[in-house]
Specification:
seven-stranded mixed β-sheet; 11 strands; two-stranded antiparallel sheet; N-FG_amidohydro; Aminopeptidase; UCP029730; alpha/beta; globular
Length: 264
């Protein structure tokens, strides 16, 4: 078994008060897992990772001098954007693709993947947010970056970007307003997905402690190449910088979750 880091931290300047996250940045697997019984082509698809998000996160982190945490393993191995008790944490089937390496799976292997990949990634996220809070002397603004497919089950998706959220509107409303201000894109508000997911990254690291946040989804065909990534980095960087300058987004304010009462 070879050493394998389940995350990468881009240091940035933690005192700037902004943290970027990319749960599904990469489609990699440790060598001992092979391809989980799948063809190589499966790892070019959205089922393996969020297409375009790794380079977009790197460009935004550089432009904003912001720390970022990137997940370095494929979501097919274990999904970092799911709670530990979520039944979709390790998928047996994803968008029609059966994953032989995930079924059957022993309790020992389930726990092994939590310990080697899922938990270290979330520990890195916790530590990066805590470092930003300590350096800046205030709650950081957290932005999570994802991408979605242009169509689902042969139905085209009209949104160019989307903002997903649970029940904390502090960063969401100004973000949507600024994204729509250019007038050249369609922005989804909790479309094509609902942002209230108990135990996911935003719930765990932002909703629970009361940190202002938003999850941005970009349509994958728009960031599938370097030109698209650069265009979206230019679009998003000044918006995120402006949001990060709002004092209202740097306090702790816990909002009730639409998923139900917090465990504590």
């Amino acid at each position: 078994m070879q050493d394998y880091s389940p995350y990468e931290i881009i240091e940035g300047n933690p005192a700037n008060g902004l943290v970027l996250l990319a749960d599904h940045a990469m489609n990699r697997l440790p060598p001992e897992y092979g391809r989980l019984g799948l063809p190589d082509s499966a790892f070019t698809r959205h089922i393996a990772y969020d297409i375009g998000v790794e380079p977009l996160t790197r460009e935004l982190a550089a432009a904003l001098d912001a720390p970022a945490v990137l997940g370095c393993f494929s979501r097919l191995l274990i999904d970092p954007n799911r709670g530990e008790d979520d039944p979709t944490l390790i998928m047996k089937i994803s968008d029609g693709a059966i994953i032989p390496g995930n079924h059957p799976i022993t309790d020992e292997e389930w726990e092994n993947r939590l310990n080697r990949f899922h938990r270290p990634y979330h520990q890195a996220v916790s530590q990066t947010i805590a470092r930003a809070a300590a350096a800046g002397g205030k709650a950081p603004l957290v932005i999570s970056l994802h991408s979605f497919t242009p169509a689902w089950k042969a139905v085209a998706r009209p949104w160019h970007a989307a903002v997903l959220w649970d029940n904390d509107p502090r960063a969401v409303f100004p973000l949507i307003e600024r994204l729509e201000a250019a007038g050249d894109i369609v922005v989804g508000n909790n479309e094509p997905y609902d942002g209230a997911l108990r135990g996911d990254t935003m719930y765990r690291h932002c909703m629970t402690p009361g940190i202002a946040h938003a999850l941005i989804e970009i349509r994958q065909d728009l960031i599938a190449d370097a030109t698209g990534v650069a265009a979206w980095a230019r679009r998003l960087a000044p918006i995120l910088a402006e949001l990060n300058g709002l004092p209202t987004l740097h306090g702790y304010q816990r909002h009730p979750s639409r998923t139900g009462a917090y465990d504590d």
